[in-house]
């Protein structure tokens, strides 16, 4: 009798552990079962959320990040060398071979000092990696802010600097010193 009770208890314990293992394993797999990540992104099983490919964001990676930046901007700025000026600039999808959905090009940066400048967007940030154009080195970083006073408009605060490679002069727009460039739509 003791052996049969022992056998029943061991069988019940074994069945419970098998059931628990199956339940826990299936729960882990189910986290991504109902998630449909878009644009080549993948679901992370341990978190049950999408890991977006470069250039995409949103809960399902459905938003092209650079779309927040592209378009025409009204710029107001004053550098450490340049006087206060206002002009129009634009940000467009990159036309470079091999560009991805995070790559953009800035046209008319610094009121035509450069024809175009390459940049990369991630979230609400735009980065201008260091690059040499016409004997001038440019680099910078900027971020979007929501303008709630005038409705659903965005403002881009861009901090950048231009170094003249011929004479070493640096025109700084808040990158290290000075006032950041403000871009409005």
UniProtKB/TrEMBL annotation:
Signal peptide: none annotated. InterPro entries: EGF (IPR000742). Residues 28-62 form the EGF-like domain. Gene3D superfamilies: Laminin (2.10.25.10). PROSITE patterns: EGF_1, EGF_2, EGF_3, PROKAR_LIPOPROTEIN. This is EGF-like domain-containing protein.
